[in-house]
Amino acid sequence: MLAVISVILIAGALLTTRSDPSAHTVGLYLWPAAVGALAFVGWWATASHLPLWVRHPAPGVFAFFPILAASTARACGVLLRGRTTRVLAVVAASALVVGIGTGSALHAVTSTTAERWETLAAQRAAVEPLAAWVDENDAAWLSAQPWGAAVSAIVLSGAHVGLFDAPAMDGIPRLTGAECTTEVLADSGRYRICAAE
């Protein structure tokens, strides 16, 4: 919703100032940022099979969204100067402030009051039986399934980490928090090592 409001503001400001040379200068920054943001969001949405660290949204957010935010702020200023567009600018800017403020407040409340999913001490305790299995079996590698949650458990077990669907991990046991579809080699309750498929 905030993105739609921003697009409406930017489009309105560009239409209002289309004969102004500053609109051309703004467009030189705005259009590449808009295309880049759309391309990044499109790629990010289709890359869900990749590990999160590969498709983390931060590069796209830091590269393109500050330019779009500055264009939105400029658009509010341009539309506030017009007699007929002033009401639109005030309503849209108010909606943006309320939306951003609400999102920020909810994020702050959630991050300070929500119970943490798993502490490092709890994770170490959960990995102890798996680390013993890794030592007993001289397992140099374990494949992580899924990539994000299982990686730190494998590192704590003392084995090297590989992505479960990588060709190099064929025949390598998998560490997972889910149920095994093959023989369970080691189980700690929270994590388990499954035989290779």
Q: In summary, what is this structure?
A:
The chain is of the alpha/beta class and 197 residues long. 61% of the residues lie in helices and 9% in strands. The chain contains 6 helices and 5 strands.
3D architecture notes:
With 197 residues, the chain is of the alpha/beta class. Helices cover 61% and strands 9% of the residues. The chain has a five-stranded mixed sheet with strand order 2-1-3-5-4. Strand 1, helix 6 (147-157) and strand 2 (160-163) form a beta-alpha-beta unit. The mean pLDDT is 86.
Topology:
Blueprint: H1 2-16, H2 21-46, H3 58-81, H4 86-113, H5 120-136, E1 141-144, H6 147-157, E2 160-163, E3 174-176, E4 184-187, E5 192-194
Helix pairs in contact: 1-3, 1-4, 2-3, 3-4, 5-6
Structural class by secondary-structure content: alpha/beta
How many H/I helical runs?
A: 6
- Global outline: elongated
Which strand order do you get reading across the main beta sheet?
Answer: 2-1-3-5-4
* Total number of beta strands: 5
How are helices and strands ordered from N to C?
HHHHHEHEEEE
For the record, give the distance between the C-alpha atoms at the N and C termini, rounded to a whole number.
Answer: 45 Å
Percent of residues in helices: 55-70%
In the predicted model, the low-confidence regions spanning at least 5 consecutive residues are none
The whole-number mean of residue pLDDT values reads 86
Main β-sheet description: 5 strands, mixed
Radius of gyration: 25 Å
- What proportion strand? 5-15%
